[in-house]
Design a protein that fits this description.
299 residues; 38% helix; mainly alpha; 2 strands; single chain; 1% strand
């Protein structure tokens, strides 16, 4: 099994090298695991989480998952070549590998996740976070396994992430992954059609190579294919380019008293950010997972 996992990882690295699609792999894995509800004690996989249920409709068609079918399609050849590797492992492996290849921390991943087997095992829509308030002035809603509705961005974030069993430090660390990637108006409804950073102009990867990419969307950072702490430094930079995204759920991490100490710590130290991020990412990647063998597999 370890050889299959290594083969799958090598194939994912080749896809990343060719397509520069790391951000969509991160989003795919997060949206799979981010449905988890720690309060649900019923038999697996009722609590959701990193179980690959996102590959099924209706979950892949949830509003928050717009655009992720493309990520699934990019990874399908990996499953075809290595059928013994679960979809859940492939999704989480692609995310962690993308972070590492973009210059981010190496994440202490384990594998052996068991896949959900049918659409009936999908979580209800409404468990993932909103970036901005809806037309009613509130963030989130009441349709998920637990209400995430709140009149404030910090209240909403806590309802979403506390439901998963994550804390304030982990919320801020995971928010830092916005350093990597873009928001698209036709997916999240946020951002511009394109900006000076996403209009086909030069983007350099962490390895120094120029990246070919599809034009469009808005990024949080100027070098949005590099994983570093520039999300935190940019958010508080009053001279930052106005075309960069600064959403309500971003800005609140430097305002809320529980979030602010971590945001400032990660702004001032990329090493501190990477240390916290790697731990939070690993935890997120294992939420709701059932491993076979029970202790998981390391490669």
């Amino acid at each position: 099994m370890a050889s299959d996992l290594l083969g799958a990882k090598g194939m994912i690295e080749e896809i990343l090298e060719e397509k520069n699609c790391g951000p969509v792999f991160v989003r795919l894995a997060w949206h799979d695991s981010g449905t988890y509800d720690a309060s649900i004690k019923e038999e697996w996989p009722k609590a959701g989480g990193a179980i690959a249920s996102i590959r099924f409709p209706p979950e892949i068609n949830h509003g928050a998952n717009a655009g992720l079918a493309g990520g699934l399609a990019l990874l399908e050849p990996v499953k075809e070549k290595y059928p013994a590797v679960s979809y859940a492992d492939i999704f989480q492996m692609a995310s962690a590998t993308a972070i590492e290849k973009a210059g981010g921390p190496k994440i202490d991943m384990i594998y052996g996740r068991v896949d959900a087997t049918s659409p009936e095992q999908c979580s209800p829509e409404g468990n993932l976070p909103d970036a901005e308030a809806g037309d009613n002035g509130k963030y989130g809603g009441t349709s998920g396994t637990a209400s995430t509705e709140d009149g404030s961005p910090h209240g909403h974030l806590r309802k979403v992430f506390y439901r998963m069993g994550l804390n304030d430090e982990e919320i801020v660390a995971l928010s830092g992954a916005h350093t990597f990637g873009r928001a698209y108006k036709d997916r999240s409804g946020l951002g511009a059609e394109k900006t000076k950073f996403t209009d086909g102009s030069k983007q350099t990867r962490s390895d120094g190579k120029e990246a070919a990419y599809k034009v469009g969307g808005s990024s949080w950072t100027e070098k949005w294919l590099v994983f570093d702490n520039s999300y935190f430094t940019t958010l508080v930079d009053k001279d930052a380019d106005p075309e960069l995204l600064k959403l309500s759920t971003d800005k609140i991490i430097f305002v809320d008293e529980g979030f602010k100490p971590f945001a400032e710590k990660f702004r001032d130290s990329q090493d501190a950010f990477f240390e916290s991020y790697a731990k939070a990412h690993k935890k997120l990647s294992e939420l709701g997972s059932k491993f076979d063998p029970a202790g998981g597999i390391t490669i």
